[in-house]
Amino acid sequence: MRSFEGMGLRVPCPLSLVLLLLLAGAGPSSSAEPEQMLLRTARERRLSDAPYWRTLGHYQTRWGRTRSLIDDSRFFLAPRGKVDPEAELEATILGLFTEDVDGRAHPRCRFPARYGWLRRELSLDDVPLPEVACPDLEASQKHVNPRSVALVFPSAHGNSPASMFGHTLLRIDSEYESTLLSYAVNYSAQVGAEENALVYATRGIFGYYPGYYTILPYYQKVQGYNNIEQRDVWEYELNLTAMEARQLFLHAWELKDIYSDYYYFDENCSYNILFLLEAARPSVSLTTSGKPWITPVDTISDVRAAGLVREVLFRPSRTRKIRQLAASLTDEDAGLAKKIAAGEAEAGEDGVPAPPLRAARILDLASEVVQLRLSKKELSPEQYRPRFRNILGARSRLTEGAPPPAPPRPESPDRGHASSRVSLGFGTLAGEEFVEVSVKPAYHELLDPEPGYDPGSQIDFLHVAARYGLAGRELRLHRLDLVQVVSLAPRDEFFPAFSWKVLTGLATRSFGEEDGLVYTVNLGGGLAWQRSWLGIGYVFAEGSGDVSARYRDGYAAGGGVSAGILRSLGDAWKVQLQGRHLYYGLGDERWESVASLRQSVRLARNHSVFVDATRTLTSDAARTEFRLAWNVYF
Amino acid sequence: MKRTLAVLAIALLSASTVLAGRDTRMNVGCGLGTVLFGDKSDDSILFQLSALSTNHMTYTQFFGITSGTSECDRPSSFVGNDRINEFVVANLDDLARDIAVGGGESVATLAELMEVPKVQRGVFYKNLQSQFAAIFPSPQTEYAHVVDAILSIANRG
User: What is the DSSP letter of A223?
Assistant: First the structure.
């Protein structure tokens, strides 16, 4: 036997080498062969790169790195499954061969969508897999009975501009006609019970809450949104087939009770359910969008653009129903309904002193108001029960009164302007001309085109504007609003709401001859009313504080009042007239009065024009500004 | 002064801890008014301002009457009518209103669960409406009685 002794190693001769290779090549014992063949096939065909595998694993490749958006280790069979789709695929294939595990924990029962896909791709019917029964999966699938799917969007509720962003969830329909018997698939953050608002916001933005996918009866969501949170609910019926609906259910089953870190801006409720739609219909691509942040309404637009929407239905909130009923009654009848709801008048044996049809509407309104008061905890259950039951008892005797008509449906939220805005403007300030460019990532101000948004609600983030003065040829930052929120909540006898507003960021103030930036915080609380001849009229008491090195004391703080009218003239024209006076008594003493007339004209869904005139009087100066701006929403 | 303002701002935001305690409370009853409430403090301005929407569930899943955790009386027709019982107990108030008014989504859903043929539903709603007092004899009526009463009216009518 010849041997090589290069480098001090003894290497056996070629013949024995061949023998060794033959023995090694004989491979594992024949009972493990099917798995190895499947693994080999999967590798050769690069199945882990297949788009559907990526969808099922919620894998994304960003900056060259691939990772799953799911953070729960229970979602992965491979230890490195979160970052390695190939390892996960192999672990899943091997997992199908597991024996002696009951049908709850077996990979075939836990990951039925993965199993179904692998079955087709790898012809698993020809492979001797262990028999497994999946009783939980089968029972659930039978109970849910997936036949079709809808995308559901609960919109804003009054006096909560933040809720304008809304939420999306999916509804899986069975053969029952009534969708109250359907099941909802929902992704939302699990928030701790005792959270302070600031902690809540920070944790939500930075991914410190786990978000869970849950499957629950749809009527619970309807009750919660319509009746407890007072939100309208939009239902976008999708054209998924029964098979696609079933596939969606199977993937939802894989995600059930799995958590994924909830990131408010990009991995939020509406984004994460898009994977379910992609799992149902692989030909649509919804999870790879351009923007780094996703709003629910954006996802609805995307789903529509993908050709998935068949029909749009609307569920009015209890608040909307109450407003509709109250508007259809005379003041006297509405007042009586209010008294009955407050327990100050009885709807007893003799019923209501009014002809049957009017009496029926009065009682319809009273019963809704009583339920509203209960859900807001303004009534205890003990007060509620006799009142509600007696109102209904009287109502049931008015057999001529048909159920009340549904409130008219407003413009669908996804028909409104897109959530980001860029604008180009031109104007003069104290006679000097300027060009202005501004960008606003989100979301909606009072003068942005109204259709699809809550009138009277404003929430804006990171509105940045820069101006270039044509005379002095200088570019300066004009404003940077970190956040501006306004909630004009018209009061009426059923809803004595308070209006409020908050603004903080950098603003431009005049300092004698020059302008300078200050950091400002402005808070206001007030009242608003709505009348058809007025529009929305409002009054605020405000507190304001500016910080700047240009102030002798470094700051100026104080308060004042503002009042205004916000009026829509037709569909495309909106006007805001406002007057404001602030007196800064702390720090640098100064005062400021501002009168402004702002108008917006909607040119198209994503185009509008603003025309503003503002007169500002301060302790040092009196200036007039005119501005014309063209806004593009995207 | 900046520090004072900062302290004020923090104090203001911290005040929201008082307002933002969101312990979910469930009115676990067996009759009218058995609804899941969100906490009233969800209306607090500061909470909303920074709350935006993580879309947390402000209420927990309804107790399962079929899981035996309920303390409510069961209808005599309990066996085999899981879905009817579950639906009635969770939607009792809206159902009561629909019955009183003579129609609506909740009573239509019940009719579908009870397999009332579509052509007979108009009569079904009218019968329920005229028998409202028998279905809900008192404010304290519990869902078990409601289910039994509706079923017996349906069988008679």
Answer: I
Is A240's pLDDT higher than 80?
yes
CA–CA distance, A165 with B49 (Å, rounded to integer):
12
Q: Token pair of A412, please?
A: 């669908």
The answer to whether residues A244 and A280 touch, using CB atoms and an 8 Å cutoff, is: yes
| Four-residue CA torsion sign, A456, A462, A468, A474 | positive
Strand A259-262 to strand A421-429: parallel, antiparallel, or no bridges (unpaired)?
unpaired
* Gyration radius of chain B over CA positions: 22
Q: Are A253 and A137 in contact (CB under 8 A)?
A: yes
pLDDT in tens, A65-118: 899 989 899 999 999 999 999 999 999 999 999 887 777 789 999 999 999 999
Check if the beta carbon of residue A454 is closer than 8 Å to that of residue A332.
no
Q: Which residues have a Cβ under 8 Å from the Cβ of A22 and sit 6 or more positions away?
A: none
A180 Cα distance to chain centroid: 22
Partner-chain contact B40 A377, CB within 8 Å: yes
Q: What are phi and psi of A141, to 5 degrees?
A: -65, -35
* Token pair listed for B75: 């209808």
pTM of the predicted structure, to 2 decimals: 0.83
Name the residue in chain A with its Cα closest to that of B37: A375
Q: Which residue has the tokens 């036997």?
A: A1
**How far apart (Å, rounded) are the C-alpha atoms in residues A374 and A380?**
7
Among the residues of chain B, which ranges form H helices?
2-20, 45-51, 82-90, 92-101, 105-113, 118-130, 132-135, 143-156
Burial of A567 (0-12, 13-18, 19+ CB in 10 A): middle
Which residues of chain B make contact with A377, given a CB cutoff of 8 A? 37, 40
A186 with A291: CB under 8 angstroms?
no
Asked if A370 contacts A347 with a C-beta cutoff of 8 angstroms, the reply is no
Token pair belonging to A164: 């304008």
| Unique residue bearing structure tokens 């009287």 | A394
A264-284 confidence digits (pLDDT tens): 665 667 788 899 999 999 999
Q: How far apart are the first and last CA of chain A?
A: 78
Q: Using CB atoms and an 8 Å cut-off, which of residues 482-521 of chain A contact chain B? A: 483, 485, 500, 502, 521
Judged by DSSP in three states, A196 sits in coil
How many other C-beta atoms lie within 10 A of the C-beta of residue A66? 17
Closest-approach residue (CA) in chain A for B98: A403
